[in-house]
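User: structure tokens for this one?
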Amino acid sequence: MTDISAPNAMGVAKQRRVDVTSAAAQARVRARYRSEARFKTYGLLALGITTVFVGVLLSDILLRGLPSFWQHRLVLDVPVAADAFGPPGKADVAAIRGGDYFPITKAALANAIPGIESRSAEKQLNRLLSTGAPDELRERLAANPALIGKTVKVPLLLSDDADLYFKGGETAIVKRAPRGIATPSGVNGEITVLTASNDFSDELITIKRALAAAAARTQFESNRLLKSPDKANQTRGTELAAEAKNLSTRAELSRGEEVLDDKVPSVLIEINGGLVKANKLGDSSITGEVLLPLKSTAEAKPADWKIVTFVTPEANRKVTDQEVAFLERLRSNGAVENVFNWRFFTAGDSREPELAGVRGALVGTALTLFVTLILCLPIGVGAAVYLEEFAPKNRFTDLVEVNINNLAAVPSIVFGLLGLAVFLNFFGLPRSAPLVGGLVLALLVLPTIIIAGRAALRSVPPSIKEAALGVGASHQQAIFHHVLPLAMPGIMTGTIIGMAHALGETAPLLMIGMIAFIVDVPQSFVESATVMPVQIYLWSDLPEKAFQAKTAGAIIVLLGFLFLMNGMAIWLRKRFERRW
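Assistant:
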């Protein structure tokens, strides 16, 4: 128990006892401690959940985006004829740069995998190269014309589908050693491979299981469509029901050959230096098409041939079995290399994923943010200084302050509509230009900078200004010579945070036309350009799978720049912050 003195009505101190030692008092204290512990636990739990969500988000972006920073290419010996670009020894740089390099690169690729006779296979082989594959060869010959007439070892860029195949995820390849001797009937075209034992029984069982699973999926989809009131869906459901019945019948047959299509795993035979794709599969024989020519029709002992299975059906892949065979042969020959994708940072946008880069968007972003900064920083700081130190306190300034606070909460698309109406329609400024984008973003960021500037000025102790005034400085001198320099770290921090906000904006820029497909890198403030958020938006809407990695890679670049800007703001605050 504790005695506390409290005056009574007559003003005389009166002793009042406060219970702090009884069991009830101790229970109340313990209850308060438990309440505080629960509150602390809830806070840690909320922080942990937030950290998990952010970690999952960043991990997903990194896993999807990091492959875009690497690229596969072929390193081949490319013979360049002496008269490829005119009379020998007389080719000029213009003729070299304007020459047709595709026949040269295609011939080099054909030399890397000889023996291809089918025109279909030849087309698939050429499809492995990107449309930008000859660029490196062109640059080398233009820089050194003496290489014409020689064989040049040069890297050739692969197509996006071939690049994705080497990065994984297309199909798993399973190789199995057989038990018997195999005999091929030919070296090219359609051949039959016979074995002395039931070497293909396991693959036949796998195909049957795949057919049963496909029948179940098809029947499920058929049942769903048949329940739809739409007649078109019901018609499609009936077709799928017939297809499911056919698949189920094929799966139940236990004897005879099975015809393989692109909806089941591919079975191939690696024999006598070649590769055969099975079109018909039996227990002890296959009939199929030669993907890579065999060297001979000699018998192959069990240790000299293998059964290869491409687990993912061909219909579910971007690369065909023929292309996989070519790519695996090139990789086994040591012609494939994986290098850092500098093109991602040095090239502009492109419809071809392997050629697309972010340089145009980065330059457009830099130009747009430069216009934003040179407009909003002096205007924002000037407005903050005037409103905080010089403006009279009346209804008009109160109205201005309220409107500035309200503008900071206005949706960003409203500023885009304002820019469309004023800068484009009224003033006639160029559409999709960094100048207009910078003006719109300056309007968006200006209220944030004014509010941050006023807060920074208020954080300076009044004694600084009073001391300056006390030694004879004018009001203007006290503000600009003493208060403003001390408030500048806070102002710069707010400015950088505002610029980071502008960097991530998309909606206002879409309204002024910065959604256009821009290939060239902008060279001035009035040329057509795009910015990083818009580039990410454009890539995310494209159907090619390679653009998914490009989108995540561009997000990583944008996040890296945002983290850099926010880190700079923290450093400025720590570096120039003053304590009083």
